[in-house]
Amino acid sequence: MTNETWGLVREELIKRVGRNNYVTWIEPLKFSDLRQGVARFEVPTSFFGDWVSRNFGDHIRAQLNHAGAQVDRVEFAVSATRPAAAPQPAAPAPAATRARPAARPAADADDMPGAPLDSRFTFDSFVVGKPNELAHAAARRVAEGGPVTFNPLFLYGGVGLGKTHLMHAIAHELQTRQPHLRVLYLSAEQFMYRFVQALRERQIMDFKELFRSVDVLMVDDVQFIAGKDSTQEEFFHTFNALVDQNKQIVISADRAPGEIKDLEDRIKSRLQCGLVVDLHPTDYELRLGILQQKVELYRSQYRGLVIADGVLEFLAHRITTNVRVLEGALTRLFAFASLVGREITLELAQDCLADILRASDRKLTIEEIQRKVADHYNIRLSDMIGPKRVRTIARPRQIAMYLAKQLTPRSLPEIGRRFGGRDHTTIMHGVRKIEELMATDSQLADDLQLLRRQLQG
Ligand code: ADP
Ligand code: MG
């Protein structure tokens, strides 16, 4: 393979990975050689090499092969550690060749030290439902790139609910609408990495300058810097400098600002100054919507794939943990079905996804049931377990006993123990009492239905 081939392949890679990723990660690669199926590239730092390998290695290999080179593996090595093939010229060569300075990525103005954006994470591919509509609307607003109306936008929610997806979508959208904007997306971990590196290499001024020169800064998973004092400090200053210049900031975390432990109070309060929106756990409709969208995508890839009625509904109902798991399940199902060339039926899904389905089975505890019922009837949790016999407490207690029997695999004596050491006959009596009442008391029947639904998510 020649440098020319690599030139062509690079062109192709722009389309695959997007311009921003291309400029940040592909352009700096220097092709060294191709021997025995291994294509080697020089990279500025080992971090850089790791990153490219992990995120773009497959793309690069595929494109090289596509261009006719026979490549089994792609390797990245730091320039300085490579044994020099020829004696080094006496004069410092790199400056003349306009190679990126190996150890100084932060100093170079076009070398935005951002993380690669996933080209699949766009607004188009984001399914909007009740649990995420607010976050989506706020992200859309930021992506318009108009005057800054809230700063920062703080997105939070559990793992796999779409925070990173939304942030990448904002970046993609801004890049198309306003290509001149300098949009920097990175994880808090990378922020710290960059910061520590700058400290080590005494380039803290470059670091500061770089981060203060962006138009939009997005920091993902900010909870990561909690407890890391000097990184927090620097983050705080960067944050303030950008807010002062009226530059948009978007932050994500796994919980609300006030709930991040070991995060300085002044940072918490700064983060709360903008718009704080949370992504709620998915509901059934959203999960089904996401599955349907993925199926459409797969359809174009694997022709002739048939999914029996009810399979998607089954998955949306059973896999409630997070969207990543849901996607993983579908991917596996499709791969399996296309390998064996069979229609995707409910049985196939149950077989092929047994482990995921088992792991997703919610294990409801008696304590959760007691808590929920106590909440619902406005009584204390301690009264659930305690000895009081007044109707307003005894009835909810019996309801909790009934639900514990219905919704958990626990035996009557076990349930009795969790209700303050009551005898199993007391539990049985409670369960029967509720069964009787349900038939006549429609209010109670409604309550039970609601509680059951809430408990089973
Ligand atoms: P988080 O950063 O909140 O942990 P991600 O943004 O990485 O979650 O989302 C996990 C996976 O789920 C990604 O592949 C993402 O595309 C997908 N996903 C999450 N929410 C949605 C949604 N509303 N529509 C489509 N895909 C989604
Ligand atoms: Mg994320």
Characterize the structure shown:
This protein is α/β, with parallel strands linked by helices and 457 residues long. The protein folds into 4 domains: 3-78, 2-Layer Sandwich (GMP Synthetase, Chain A, domain 3); 114-279, Rossmann fold (3-Layer(aba) Sandwich), CATH 3.40.50; 284-360, Helicase, Ruva Protein, domain 3 (Orthogonal Bundle), CATH 1.10.8.60; 366-456, Chromosomal Replication Initiator Protein Dnaa, Chain: A (Orthogonal Bundle). It is built from 21 helices and 8 strands. It has helices at 3-17, 19-26, 46-66, 94-97, 133-144, 163-177, 188-200, 204-212, 229-244, 265-271, 284-301, 311-318, 323-340, 346-352, 354-360, 366-376, 381-385, 391-407, 412-418, 424-440, 442-455; strands at residues 30-35, 38-43, 73-78, 153-157, 183-187, 216-220, 248-253, 275-279. The strands form 2 sheets. The chain has a 5-stranded parallel β-sheet with strand order 5-6-7-4-8, with helices on both faces. The termini are far apart. The model is unreliable at 81-110 (pLDDT under 50). Magnesium ion (MG) binds at residues 163-164, 220-221. It comes from Paragemmobacter kunshanensis. Residues 1-81 are annotated as: Domain I, interacts with DnaA modulators. Its main location: cytoplasm.
